[in-house]
């Protein structure tokens, strides 16, 4: 499923890959509509319908992920509302072991996320995730989402990497397709990003796993890179 012997860099999505997507799903589908309905004196379902229509219209763009954009568009403090349910932020299964194994194998681990820097800071403060990887890059720093093929060449100027010796792990098939089309050597899909939802159907061309324990044995069997 993953040929670890050919890799020296592993790019990792955060939400739905390392962290349980339940936090984000609950926020956008439940908590925000509830608080929005309170603020504007709407029926909860009416608020939800209005919000989903606006959100879906931005799908795949940087605005989709931008808390500044949504705070201004909706006249609410998105970061404050996220903090209200931050107790739901947590790791997906086997993630600490997986990250420790990447480090032990001498692989360069980089979180590559579409998460805006403000909620990113909240999630790092709750999890300490930044202590377990070598670097973190938000797509907002580069001005384009991971779905944009040009993102990957811009990323190379920030984090030099060899495409053919890089693995990208993500729960988004559009992102993985973008990475693959940009020349990333291997891609791996996470099929169970939200602990409260059934796993997604696999991709015909991209291998997928539910949890990292499916690839841990082969990763842990990989000898460390000589340079490490």
TrEMBL record:
PANTHER family: GMP_IMP NUCLEOTIDASE YRFG, PHOSPHOGLYCOLATE PHOSPHATASE. SUPFAM superfamilies: HAD-like (SSF56784). GO terms for molecular function: metal ion binding; phosphoglycolate phosphatase activity. This is Haloacid dehalogenase. GO terms for biological process: DNA repair. Keywords: Metal-binding. One of its GO terms (cellular component) is cytosol. Transmembrane segments: none annotated. It comes from the Bacteria. Coiled coil: none annotated. It holds the Pfam family Hydrolase. CDD domains: HAD_like (cd01427).
């Amino acid at each position: 499923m993953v040929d670890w012997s050919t890799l020296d860099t592993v790019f990792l999505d955060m939400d739905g890959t390392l962290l349980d997507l339940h936090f984000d799903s609950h926020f956008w589908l439940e908590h925000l509509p509830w608080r929005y309905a309170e603020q504007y004196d709407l029926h909860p379902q009416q608020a939800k319908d209005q919000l989903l229509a606006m959100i879906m219209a931005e799908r795949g763009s940087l605005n989709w992920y931008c808390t500044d954009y949504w705070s201004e568009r909706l006249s609410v403090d998105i970061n404050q509302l996220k903090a209200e349910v931050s107790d739901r932020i947590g790791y997906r299964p086997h993630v600490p072991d997986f990250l420790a194994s990447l480090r032990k194998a001498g692989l360069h681990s980089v979180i590559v996320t579409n998460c805006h820097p403000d909620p990113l800071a909240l999630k790092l403060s709750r999890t300490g995730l930044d202590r377990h990887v070598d670097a973190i890059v938000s797509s907002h720093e580069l001005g384009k989402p991971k779905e944009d093929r040009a993102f990957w060449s811009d990323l190379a100027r920030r984090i030099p990497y060899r495409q053919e010796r890089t693995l990208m792990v993500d729960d988004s098939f559009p992102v993985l397709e973008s990475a693959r089309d940009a020349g990333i050597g291997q891609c791996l899909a996470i099929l169970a990003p939200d602990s409260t939802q059934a796993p997604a159907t696999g991709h015909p061309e991209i291998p997928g796993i539910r949890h990292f324990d499916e690839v841990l044995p082969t990763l842990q069997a990989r000898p460390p890179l000589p340079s490490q």
